[in-house]
Amino acid sequence: MKLTAIYARFFRSLNYDYVRLSNPNYSPDPWDGTPSGAQYPFVRLRLEDQITTVVGGNESGKSQVLAAVRAALTGEGYERSDFCRYSPFFSVDKTLIRPEFGAEFRDLSDADIEAIEEATGETGLTGTDRVAIFRMNTTPQLRLYAHRGDQWTKPRHVKKSSLLNDAGLPAPFNIDADIPLPDSVPLEFLATGKPAAAVGRSVLRSIWDAFTNNSTWFDSKDSVVSQASEISTSFKTSTSIDEKELKKYHLAADLLLKVAGLDRSQFVELQNAVRTKNGYANSIVDTINSELSKALNFPHWWTQDSQFELFVALFEYDLVFMIRDRTGRSYGFDERSDGLKYFLSYFVQYLAHEAPSDGRPEILLMDEPDRFLSSSGQQDLLRVFADFADPEDEARAPVQVLYVTHSPFLIDKNHAERIRVLEKGEHDEGTRIVASVAQNHYEPLRSAFGSFVGETAFIGTCNLMLEGPSDQILLAGISSWLGRQNAPDRERLDLNRITLVPAGGVSQVPYLIYLARGRDIEQPAVIALLDGDKAGNEARSTIRKGGARRKPLIADDLVLQLSDAELDGVTTDNPHGRVAIEDLIPIDIAIAAASSYCAEFVPDIDIPKLELSAKTVFGEGSGGELPTAGAKGTIDALEQMIRKLTVQEKFELNKIGFARSVLAELSSDATREQDRQTLAKNFRQLFEALGVRQRKAVRAESVERVSSRINRARDRFMREHVSTATREHVLLLIEEISGQLDNSEEAEDVRAEMRSWRPRFHLDQDPREAIEDIEDLHTALRSLAYLGKRKASTEPTIPAPSLGKVPATLAIVSESETFVESPAGSQSSTDVEHVSEGESA
Length: 841
Prior knowledge:
By secondary structure, the protein is of the alpha/beta class. Strands 1, 2, 4, 5, 6, 7 and 8 form a seven-stranded antiparallel β-sheet that branches. Strands 9-14-15-3-16-17 form a six-stranded mixed β-sheet, with helices on both faces. Strands 10, 11, 12 and 13 form a four-stranded antiparallel β-sheet that branches. Residues 51-412 form the ATPase AAA-type core domain.
């Protein structure tokens, strides 16, 4: 049977599902009841069959979700003190004293049902398609619900919980994210498994230095006696080992004994050989390294260096872990970053993991593995998770994976369905799981992550939409370079406050803006930078009329085109003007960058021998017309000329490689200072123009949330009208709330909901009369603040139209508002339609 959902209630910040409870159409599940008779829905986390990614900001409850999974499956890891402190039952109800948990399963086999029947002592479960196991405060404390047809049965008492293991109750385990691979490990520990402190190079060095610098201490018995205190201090070595260091040693032992398949007897033999037979000892070490290399196949997993190699070296009575990279040089662990050691730790734990002997399925739980890893290391770790869930080795059993993170680099952009976002509410609301993250156009991700610079959209304070990743590299790199040149803040990008989002092509920019802005309650600030060519003009036209009811996707003054008059002060060598961002780069720097690129990737092309210049690259027109070279920008003109002069028609000047080479040329001694100053002046103007748009976009989106405004008015009203309120009081409240609303779609929904109150509470009758059902009014007020959240959570979706190479996680739009491109693929304003519900394109 497959684990599909975890439930928790009154557990730390996982109080209850307050959004679901606020829904007027809320229908309780059979386990939602409490001893008082009140219904409180559990917080539910739905799990994917393979990998589930939980993201959230600090203190959003990520770690508590992992604890809830373990508690639901094992009944362990929680106690009375974990009861939610702001639960209405905290220290009030003597029956509800501990948090409550549940787990839901599907894909039941006949053997699973048979085991469940034996565990409950009841029969008649044939035809069950789902079961839910709950750990409650009231009897039966361990209960099972069976689902058949379209309803759940009454709870059955699980009398023999151990038999649930036979039904496939998953066994949770974790990869320890806090224990890195050690710098070295004592031979004594590898040979015997007994704790032994490493001597280490620094200790041996200090002992030798003490001996050589104070040899007179040992001239006679008397000198030894007289210097006893100093000798004791200098030669004293620690024999104790703390728990964390011991865990590191166990990890090293797992690497050598389990992963590499070595035997302890080999280390016993090495211990003996190191004393008298150095050659033999080194041969044993060679064997260890040979087996280690075969077992790890590390270059397959560590994409940052295909020639990376992990090996051990013998240093007296310790084995020291060493690294050899693509430079061919060797390094100790103390000379490399912590990220590498931690990735190796995760990788070793993955390889050394052993499945339960009873054949039970497993679920891997991992808490914030991004803490020590670089963005590339996190991407490599995703591949380890993928192999856990779907092993390449047929001998390994698949493992369900659940990890929590606040890093966008640990989100698989190809699998939007895996994302679960946590949101911490106000007051007694606690943590909730945001439903339908993709439908909400990824706004919850932006709220969860906060400011950050990277390749994932909708998570920064402001998002700059770019045509491609080369633009991202140039803008980020040159902005950092300008910072080192002490450029003013207004004339460079603050990369902590703006996210550079490459769209994968100019035609994708409007669609990406649409997805970023979406229909969610909150919309991230978005600006755009477009080329000054025809495609850029068409994209801008689409942005102007591509939204709902032909409204702009974003305001036109938040879009900057390189051809805008605002950038007329920019100097360019391209006679066609500012066509692409590379036209802001002086031609001599561009030629030098092309030379560096070819030297690394196309060594048979010698750029200096071609004697390129602005004249040869852009050519000369006849009859006064502009030369055709440069019509698509500097990089295209360079590419065409190199093809022509080398007679290599298939030559391509990769934009990303070129961008990186430009950044390298800025630090080259061969680059003319005048060219550096020209480039700096050009990009400072560009960044200043972008900064104006960034600040305007952020100001426009920094308004208070509508729900917060409603909550303030609601709370005051409910304090003043606890048991009674007249119709006039309600009309005044409606007037107060309406006066604080803006023109957003959420505000319109709130107005429509309040209009429905007139017949519901008879507001058009005598205003002096009291409302007949004050509790119903209070329920309506509570529901009003969450109206937008409920609508966003339940909004249906349809597949996005085919728009070429759109990031997979972004190709999800709502059914009620769809961005449509014409079959021909052009995106002029006449090609974009808005499809309302019930209409067709």
